[in-house]
Structure formats: C-alpha cells, structure tokens
Amino acid sequence: MRAKRLYQITRTFLHYGLNELIPAKWMPWSVRVARVGLFWLPNRHKEKPAGERLRLALESLGPVWVKFGQMLSTRRDLLPPDIALELAKLQDKVKPFSGERAQKLIEKALGLKHIDELFDDFNVTPLASASIAQVHTAKLKHGDDAGADVVIKVIRPDIRDAIDADLSLMETLASVLAKHLPDGRRLKPREVVKEYRKTLLDELDLAREAANAIQLRRNFEDSKLLYIPKVYSDFSRHNVMVMERIDGIPVSDVDTLMTLGVDMKKLAERGVEVFFTQVFRDSFFHADMHPGNIFVAREHPEDPQYLGIDFGIVGTLNREDKRYLAENFLAFFNRDYRKVAELHVDSGWVPAHINVEEFESAIRTVCEPIFNKPLADISFGHVLVNLFNTARRFEMEVQPQLVLLQKTLLYVEGLGRTLYPQLDLWQTAKPFLERWMQEQLGWRAVLRSVKEHAPYWAEKMPEMPTLLYDYLRNQKHQVEQQQLATQAVLAGQRKMVWRLWWGLMSTATLVSTTLLWVTEQNHWLTALSGVATLASVVMSWRKPAK
C-alpha cells in the first residue's frame, strides 16, 4: 500500500515536472540517475509556470496535499512569491461521499437508532463538502431550540488512515530534503511537516473545534463586529458537530454586497478591528480566516456584521508576545528600527549575542523602500513577512504562534483590500494599538490589575494575621537554623586549621628526626625529636580547644 502510494506521488511529481524546481547541483547523483531511469514519465505540462504545475500536482494528489499547499502558501519566507501566490489559489473542495453513509456515521456517533430521533428534515445531499468533512442540513427536534435550522458537520470515513499514510511519506520526503538540500537547514522541511501534522490532526477533532467556537462566541457575545453560530455541544462528538445554520453572503461575493448597499469601507475596517480585537484583547484568534470561512449578515447593510465558521485552527499569544508584538507594530509606524531590533532581542525571538546595530541596519534596508510608497499602497502583511525573513538571517527561530498570526493577517489584509481597495490598514490599526498600549500601562493597568485580583485578595484577607504570625515564626526558626549552621562552619574551619598546624609540625619534626638519625647525631637529641613527632601526630587528631 505504502509503496503503491509512493509510486503514485513520484509519478505525479514527474508528470508535472516538479523535479525541475530543484537545481540539478542540489540533487545527489543517485536521484539524477533514478530520474533518467524513469524516462517514461516525462513532464506533460512544460508550457505552464512552475507555480501552476505545483498547484495542479497537489490538487491531483488529494486533500492532505491540498491542505499542505495551503499551509505552504502562508510561509512566504520559504517560497518564491510567484509560487506562494499560486498555492494560495488551492481550493479545498472535493467530491462528497454518500449522504446515507454520513447519516450512519452521525447515528453511530450520537447513539441513535435513527436520525429522526433528534433531527427533522435531515438532507442526505450535503450542503458543502471539503477534504476533511462535509456538512448536512437539518432541524432540531427537541429542547429550547426545537425547530431551529442547524448544520451537522461529519468527518469523512477512513480519512485518518489516508492522512497517516500521506503524513508518513511527507516525513520521509522531508528527511531526504533536509539531508541533501544545501539550504535544508534554513528551510527546515522536517519542522514544517511536523507543524502541518499538528494542524491537520487538530482539524480532525470536531470536539476541539466545538470548544474553539464556544470560546469565540463568548468573546464576541452581543458584538456588532462578528457573530459566531451557536454550537450544540450536547450533540457534538469527536467526529460530529452540530451548529446553528447561518444565512449570510460570502464575503468574496462583492457584487452582491454592493447591490445590497453594504457599507464596504466600514466592512473592511471592521475586518481589521475583528483581527486586532481577537489578538490583543482576547489572545485567541481564528487562524483560518480565508474567504470561504467568512460571510456577511444580510441585515443592516449600513452597519455590516461578519459571520464566521470553521474553527479548527485557532492561535493564541501569551502576555509577553502580545506586548512585544504591539510595540513592534508601533515602532514600525514610527520607523524606529532600533526599537524593532531591540524588541526582537528582548523578547528572545533573536539570540542575545546578535549585533543589534547590524540587525537594525538590515531591517532599515528592507523597510525603507516600502515606506517610500503611500501608506495605502503598503501591504502590512508583507512588511511582517519581510521582517521575519530578515530576522531569520539573524538566527531567529520559527515561532509557530507568529506564523499563524502572519497567515491570518495576510488573509485579513487581502480581504480588506478586496472589499475596499483604498483601505489604509496602517491608519486603521494604529489607533487601536495605541489605545491598547495605553490600557496596558499607567493607572488604567493598575486599576484593572486591582479589579482582576480583588476576589483573591478578599479571600486571603481573613488569613492575613495567621499568615503574618507563621511568617514571623518561620523567620525566627530560620535565624536560629542559620546561627547553628554558621557555628558548625566555624567549628569545621577551626578543626581544619588545627589539623593543618599540627600536620605541618609533624612533618617538620619528622624531617628533623630523619636528618638527626642519618647524620648520627646525639642519640638523646634524636630521641627527643622523635618524641616531638609522635606528640605532633597525636595533637593533630585531637579536637581543638573551643
């Protein structure tokens, strides 16, 4: 099975001439000989650009490779721009599997004899079908939301076996590339595949996705910016998720949005605000915000609201990453490259031994040509890509949370400019970041900290007298223990000095006795020296006087 799949992958790569993407000097002789031996598998698409050939090859290999290409499209640091742009066109749409089979999987997951026990109007024809799962519509039959329209997402049968097989082959291929490519250390193919494995396996767990959706819904409850559908967690399992059905306009359908009179400028700006709110307010962001997962509510076109779906991939940032990231953005706004370089070192993203002046100069070299353009023509996402590429030359390790952030920002910016080409993302984001930084510093931050910790302090206040007494008693005990330890050290030192002194005396008198004996001096003088030697030895083993 594995050998057959390996042959199929090799055949596809050669059919689309992907071996030509690797310079001949990079390939070991064994690979070149093997390629000549497979002469009956020529490149059938010589007229197509390299990026298009790579995209078509991945599409023909199936869903695992399609998603891998989608992930690679966000790693602009690893690929030429033309190839990255072509991979971004990969569509995660595949032929649906049998609706009757999907119904059986849902019934088994929920412990039903028949789907009619929980749902009415279950439609065996899927509403949508993707590489990992497909979606069917139905109505809830019981409970407070009886009659509500829902969608039931179900993982494809046997998808895990196919994924494991392809991932295993990817890891083998990555190991070969890491070993033989001269640039293998920088490209880190093994690390890229490892990152992809985690992302893909996370998407297979719909219980995890349901929890992500619940968290996002709570974060944007009663918000005019973003609406997250309700998840019915009682009916959700690791391979099945039941969620409120939404009725929205695909965000990519610009003509319909404009026909309905949607305020496109406000819609674009709200997309930016949604992103920065998730990142800096919540530290929890939807990391797969491509157009297929974003819709616009039909109501209130003058005050548009986003609708989000598909929460398999989310990102998080810790407090330090958020602060350093916000300060980096603001330093860029002000073209303070020294500050940017210092922040990278302070955050630990770049090693401390890096020369800050050289790093600052490299950042300036990359960014100054960009800032010569009007702000509205500058891609915020590509500035971030260029920054990370420059930082990697100075030994910056790949930061997974920043890769997801970069990918999401590229999605958001591309979406914003599609909706409203005049969008100035810099001017939209700067006030938000400045306001956030003000809230993190100064008296507002102090008040928020007091408010956050007030319940803990209120709980501990009655215990304070007891805690204070225990602390003082422990301090007294520690002082006594320290005094005893000091006395023991001093006693040891006195003992050592005593033994050293009498040891030296023993050595001196022994030498004297030996010389007197050898030179045949008076016997009484030799005997007296010998007695002194014995006395010194005895004294060295006695305890010193206190």
UniProtKB/TrEMBL annotation:
The keyword Glycoprotein does not apply. Keywords: ATP-binding, Cell inner membrane, Cell membrane, Kinase, Membrane, Nucleotide-binding, Transferase, Transmembrane, Transmembrane helix, Ubiquinone, Ubiquinone biosynthesis. It is found in: Cell membrane. Residues 89-344 form the ABC1 atypical kinase-like domain. It comes from the Bacteria. It holds the Pfam family ABC1. Pathway: Cofactor biosynthesis; ubiquinone biosynthesis [regulation]. InterPro entries: ABC1_dom, Kinase-like_dom_sf, UbiB, UbiB_bact, UbiB_kinase. The keyword Cytoplasm does not apply. The active site is at D288. Is probably a protein kinase regulator of UbiI activity which is involved in aerobic coenzyme Q (ubiquinone) biosynthesis. This is Probable protein kinase UbiB. It comes from Pseudidiomarina homiensis. The gene is ubiB.
